[in-house]
Amino acid sequence: MKRFALIGHPVAGSLSPRLFSAAYDGRFAYDLVDRELFADAWQVFLDSYEGINVTAPYKMDAFSSVDELSESALETGAVNLVVRRKADSRPGGGAQAVPRKSETPFAASSGGCAPDILVGYNTDVDGVVESVKECGIPVSDALVVGTGGAARAAVVAARRLGCRVTVSGRSLEKAAALVRSLALTASAAVSPSPAASAAGIHSSPVSDRSLASAAALAAGAAAVNVVPLDQIAALSPDLIIYTLPGSAPVPPGLPTAGAVVLEAEYKAPALALVSPTLASPPALVSPNPACQVSNDPALSSARCKAYISGRRWLLHQAVAGYRLFTGLEPSIDAMSAAL
Q1: Range list of β-strands (E), 219-290
Q2: Pairing label, strands 68-70, 97-99
Q3: Which residue has the higher pLDDT, 294 or 80?
């Protein structure tokens, strides 16, 4: 039986095992691998699993440790899913991956046989794009709150949705560094530079479509705005992608008025703690039942247009990832019911 897992720290309470079991009616094993060190978690993967999901804080470590990268992984500089495949096979799910030029720090081993190829993907981008699309509300101006791996995917996804993008976080320096690194990563996909190589970013020539996408992202990332967290109240976004952890205080003046709000955290969502009505209203009155509407003034002077739970993000990134894991179509209805 093929075995899959989630690596990260901590991962207790993750819905991924339940979601994966529902996707394929329990046909495949799925475990949680919680290790304090990335190298330890990675070794467990190499020893025991066909593929892994990767969660915080290891998404950028995984990016540096695979042999090939998908377009979304190249764009974000982060990996949330890794699939092991033989050198003479092609990745499943219709996705294309780009070989890396450099040796990876944690190589797969197959004894005397040709080594497996480790392919890294970022399906968090799919999770954001599909969550917002299914909401059915047009958006054009996005505020991404946070600077971690989820925020990187959020910026790329917002650009794909055609939005202007502003990034803010608890550290202005980290927010600015995120935007710079996204532009550098995308530029490296088009034309590797000494600066990119020094940053550990390596890629090989890619398709015209990937080149165009990377070039567009590089240009777009250069135009992304960065603002201090204490100044976001002056903004008027129509999409907020909130990626701060649930334990972090909600920034005062978060400009939710009239905006679609997508929160990455689903186990203990910060916005739900501030405003229970926002996360679990008595009625779903937005255009799509995946969105939930708030009439609670705690977050802003006027209600947000729609709230999208991180469970929808989780679902859509999982659907895209599970296809890559197995080459089979998962049961989306069963997965939705499991959430």
Answers
A1: 225-226, 239-242, 260-263
A2: antiparallel
A3: 80
46 membership: H or E segment, kind and range: helix 38-48
Containing H/E element for 322? Answer: helix 310-326
pTM of the model: 0.79
Which tokens belong to 50? 């066909």
Distances (CA, A) of 10 to 13, 22, 29, 34, 48: 9, 23, 20, 6, 20
Which residues, 6+ apart, have CB-to-CB distance to 2 below 8 Å? Answer: 28, 29, 50, 325, 326
For the chain, the structural domain boundaries read 3-123+314-338, 126-310
CATH topology of domain 3-123+314-338: Rossmann fold (3.40.50)
DSSP letter for 203, please. -
Under the banding of pLDDT at 50, 70 and 90, the label for residue 257 is confident
The whole-chain average pLDDT of the chain stands at: 80
What tokens appear for 140 in the block? Answer: 């054009």
Beta strands 291-292 and 306-308, pairing class: antiparallel
Are 78 and 153 contacting, i.e. CB atoms less than 8 angstroms apart?
yes
pLDDT band at 201 (very low <50, low <70, confident <90, very high): very low
DSSP conformation letters of 93-157: TT--EEE-SSPPSS----TTSPPPEEEEE-THHHHHHHHHHHHT----EEEEE--SHHHHHHHHH
**pLDDT level of residue 318 (50, 70, 90 thresholds):** very high
Fold identical between 3-123+314-338 and 126-310? yes
Considering Cα of 282, then 285, then 289, then 293, what sign does the dihedral take? negative
Give the CATH number of domain 126-310; options: 3.40.50.720, 3.30.360.20, 3.90.105.10, 1.20.1250.20.
3.40.50.720
Higher pLDDT, 128 or 56: 128
